[in-house]
From TrEMBL:
Its main location: secreted. Pfam families: ITI_HC_C (PF06668), VIT (PF08487), VWA (PF00092). Keywords: Glycoprotein, Protease inhibitor, Proteoglycan, Secreted, Serine protease inhibitor, Signal. Belongs to the ITIH family. Residues 26-155 form the VIT domain. It comes from the Eukaryota. This is Inter-alpha-trypsin inhibitor heavy chain H3. Residues 1-20 form the signal peptide.
Length: 689
């Protein structure tokens, strides 16, 4: 939501400021290195952050005085996260406050240009760097006058690699008598970790000016360097405060999900832990046109070599290079075996730049390869596909119209997997890359032409390298929720978080049921049993006998019989191995899933089995011969329905997995219609786990 606001923001001060005689003159930045020479002294800068449930409310306040004998112009520059949005700005001169107005993009741009042409004071948001946008406003300050700039912006903090990050740019440009950053964090789930670091100061100096603490639901960070601690050297008059101040934290997760309800609105956080990584099928589509020559190509190759070292043995991959034509490493995806990885490393080392830029054909070749691999069962059924493209320019050969390329890519992918676009440098149509990625359930990222470009590439890959779930859907009661934000995601990646918000129709509602559905790795089959502890995997067969206990969970494998899963004093589940004659023309070994202590389940438990774990009323009468003389029919009254049922028997294999115990029962016809809640299709899933 925040990123959609960002390019549409401008802040123009009310026209009354110009009427007061504050006209623009050649710009001079606020906080220059020698305040005596121009008369402007910045004597206070404070950044105050209040974070509640991942939502940050930030106020930047800077106070300055003009100690010169004549009016001086000062510019107030603030660099803000790209995902933030401005909510307020005020300018106070000699006790008189001038509020600002936030406008949408087109209206704001016209008003800004008009204000500048008339000599009025106005502010504008512009791109600044990797993670930042710059807000700038200038004003003339009379001799002896004081001015206070106050900017308020907000953002929803995203979780990446297991942490939430607040990114603050520190650049006062001069020594400031009172400089302070303070952040107060409140998380209802409780704070598990809290840290802060600065790129512009050594850890020793940072430690003397920094305090941080957290306990329970509250955390606090304060950075308050003295004038001497701000100096670039003991006798210097310039400031070393020039760089990034980053606060990171995470919350306690006793369960995968947390729902918070306030004033008729809710926010649902979902971040399961300890799940096994889903194998991935990755095609890297790399621009090798002439513009990639030199450092960009070398950094790209360095990053790809590092990525190859991180590939898992069950992953599949391929490389597609595009310039004026398209070259593939292999005709099809190949498994990331040690031999194939070594061959891929040799291929990457020999990549050279050449020719023009055919984005369309490069992407379509990669998409076709992923589609074919799935259709021809060349990759594991329970795996996920990803396509990652890197380019540094615009298409200039083949199909070069951005809108047509987008159409071709959208039709080829067909919503089956995400596209991630990496734009290298500034000489490209980044809006095109971003739009194409977003409409294919991915995202775009700009890679800046710095010495660490290879680390930027690796960092992006690490964010998508470990998918834990695919096809994630978060479902809520149909008649209880409205104004729902995005609630379906193709992937959930390790270290990230899914956030869904909405409005409750009943403002007094304090709880409701939310179902999260997704597909992970199959970990129990008739051939093997895979147990996971975070990223660590232990694999067993049905010939093993073993018991594993950890944190109240007990798993026991009984040779050739079953696997028993117990949760402390709670419910116990049993997975029974049903083996059939090996030469049977149709039947195969299969698994049966049983709940041993159904009475221990919550009354809220549902599902095809769960809805019957608690007692319910039914009555059978009018027993009479049926179409099969050995199986009488009867009338069952249940859940206000009259059903025709047939007498029969079923086997219970919990005590005797080979022969089973014969149990008499009534069979309900028409797929259980009238007995089960909803219809039978509601309970059909691809597999058990």
């Amino acid at each position: 939501m925040a990123s959609a606001w960002w390019p549409c923001l401008i802040l123009a001060l009310l026209s009354g400021l110009a009427a007061s005689g504050f006209l623009r003159s050649p710009s001079r930045p606020l906080g220059v290195s020698s305040p005596v020479s121009n008369g402007i002294e910045v004597y206070s800068t404070k950044i105050s952050c209040k974070v509640t449930s991942r939502f940050a409310h930030n106020v930047v306040t800077t106070r300055a005085v003009n100690r010169a004998d004549t009016a001086k112009e000062v510019s107030f520059d603030v660099e803000l996260p790209k995902t933030a949005f401005i909510t307020n700005f005020t300018l106070t001169i000699d006790g008189v406050t001038y509020p600002g107005n936030v406008k949408e993009k087109e209206v704001a741009k016209k008003q800004y240009e008009k204000a500048v042409s008339q000599g009025k004071t106005a502010g504008l948001v512009k791109a600044s760097g990797r993670k930042l946008e710059k807000f700038t406003v200038s004003v003339n300050v009379a001799a002896g006058s004081k001015v206070t700039f106050e900017l308020t912006y907000e953002e929803l903090l995203k979780r990446r690699k297991g942490k939430y990050e607040m990114y603050l740019k520190v650049q006062p440009k001069q020594l400031v008598k009172h400089f302070e950053i303070e952040a107060d964090i409140y998380e209802p789930q409780g704070i598990s970790t809290l840290d802060a670091e600065a790129s512009f100061i050594t850890n020793d100096l940072l430690g003397s000016a920094l305090t941080k603490s957290f306990s329970g639901k509250k955390g606090r960070v304060s950075f308050k360097p003295s004038l001497d601690q701000q100096r670039s050297c003991p006798t210097c008059t310039d400031s070393l405060l020039n760089g990034d101040f980053i606060i990171t934290y995470d919350v306690n997760r006793e369960s995968p999900a947390n729902v918070q309800i306030v004033n008729g609105y809710f926010v649902h956080f979902f971040a399961p832990q300890g799940l096994p990584v889903v194998p991935k099928n990755v095609v890297f589509v790399i621009d090798v046109s002439g513009s990639m020559h030199g450092r960009k190509m070398e950094q790209t190759k360095d990053a790809l070599l590092k990525i190859l070292g991180d590939m898992k043995g069950e992953d599949y991959l391929n490389f597609i290079l595009f310039s004026g034509d398209v070259i593939t490493w292999k005709d099809d995806l190949v498994q990331a075996t040690p031999e194939n990885i070594e061959e891929a490393r040799i291929f990457v080392k020999n990549i050279h730049d050449r020719g023009l830029t055919n984005i369309n054909d490069g992407l379509l070749r990669g998409i076709s390869m992923l589609n074919r691999a799935r259709e021809e069962h060349r990759v594991p059924e329970r795996s996920t596909s990803i396509i990652i493209m890197l380019t540094d320019g615009d298409a200039n050969v083949g199909e070069s119209r951005p809108e047509k390329i987008q159409e071709n890519v959208r039709n080829a992918i067909g919503g089956k997997f995400p596209l991630y676009n990496l734009g290298f440098g500034n000489n490209l149509n980044y809006n095109f890359l971003e739009s194409m990625a977003l409409e294919n359930h991915g995202l775009a990222r700009r890679i800046y032409e710095d010495s660490d470009a290879n680390l930027q590439l690796q960092g992006f890959y690490e964010e998508v390298a470990n998918p834990l779930l695919t096809g994630v859907e978060v479902e809520y009661p149909e008649n209880a929720i409205q104004d729902l934000t995005q609630n379906a995601y193709q992937h959930f990646y390790d270290g990230s978080e899914i956030v869904v918000a909405g409005r409750l129709l009943d403002e007094d509602m304090n709880n409701f049921k939310a179902d999260v559905k997704g597909h992970g790795v199959s970990w129990v089959t008739p051939e093997k049993i895979a147990l996971w502890n975070g990223a660590a995997q232990s694999t067993f067969t049905w010939l093993d006998t073993v018991t594993i206990t950890q944190d109240g969970l007990s798993v026991t494998i009984n040779r050739k019989k079953n696997m028993v899963i117990s949760f402390g004093d709670g419910v116990t589940f049993m997975v029974v191995l049903h083996q059939v004659w090996k030469k049977h023309p149709v039947h195969q070994d299969f698994l049966g899933f049983y709940v041993v202590d159904s009475h221990r389940m919550s009354a809220q438990t549902h599902g095809l089995l769960g809805q019957f774990f608690q007692p319910f009323d039914f009555k059978v009468s009018d027993i009479h011969p049926g179409s099969d003389p050995t199986k009488p029919d009867a009338t069952m009254v249940v859940k206000n329905h009259r059903l025709t049922v047939t007498r029969g028997s079923q086997k219970d294999y919990r005590k005797d997995v080979n022969i089973g115990t014969k149990v008499a029962c009534w069979f309900v016809h028409n797929n259980g219609q009238g007995l089960i809640d909803g219809v039978h299709r509601d309970y059909i899933i691809p597999d058990l786990f």
